[in-house]
Write a structure and sequence with these properties.
The chain is mainly β. The protein has no helices and eleven strands. Helix content is 0%, strand content 50%. Strands 2, 4, 5, 6, 9, 10 and 11 form a seven-stranded mixed β-sheet that branches. A four-stranded antiparallel β-sheet has the order 1-3-8-7, with no helix packed on it. Strand 4 and strand 5 form a beta hairpin.
Length: 122
């Protein structure tokens, strides 16, 4: 499966951004989809995941209540709505696909899109 992420940018603290990730190549509903982020000098972390059906979701504690992951299986696209952004959300964000549909388990994701930079200014 090929993944193409978009939607990053520069936003002030308290603002919002929506990331999109378009998938192609395989049956989209067979894959859980996730959003990871990696800040300079830090490990990549799973911030949100959604099961293939879209019925189950996972969020890292640091983004609960602020970020919402969703998917449109008719469009083969997954989204990450990010609200109340904080400077510590600054990172490169990656979308990824998990063929095992585990959605909560970061190590289960095998396919990666290119990153998109999100910068939150104070």
């Amino acid at each position: 499966v090929q993944l193409q992420a978009s939607g990053g940018g520069l936003v002030q603290a308290g603002g919002s951004l929506r990331l999109s990730c378009a998938a192609s190549g395989r049956t989209f509903t067979n894959y859980a989809m996730g959003w990871f982020r990696q800040a300079p000098g830090e490990e990549r972390e799973l911030v949100a995941g959604v099961s293939g059906s879209g019925r189950s979701t996972y969020y890292a504690d640091s983004v609960k209540g602020r970020f919402t992951v969703s998917r449109d299986n008719a469009k083969n696209t997954v989204y990450l709505q990010m609200n109340s952004l904080k400077p510590e959300d600054t990172a490169v964000y990656y979308c990824a696909a998990d063929p095992a549909n585990m959605y909560k388990l970061g190590s289960s994701y095998d396919y990666w899109g290119q990153g998109t930079q999100v910068t939150v200014s104070r």
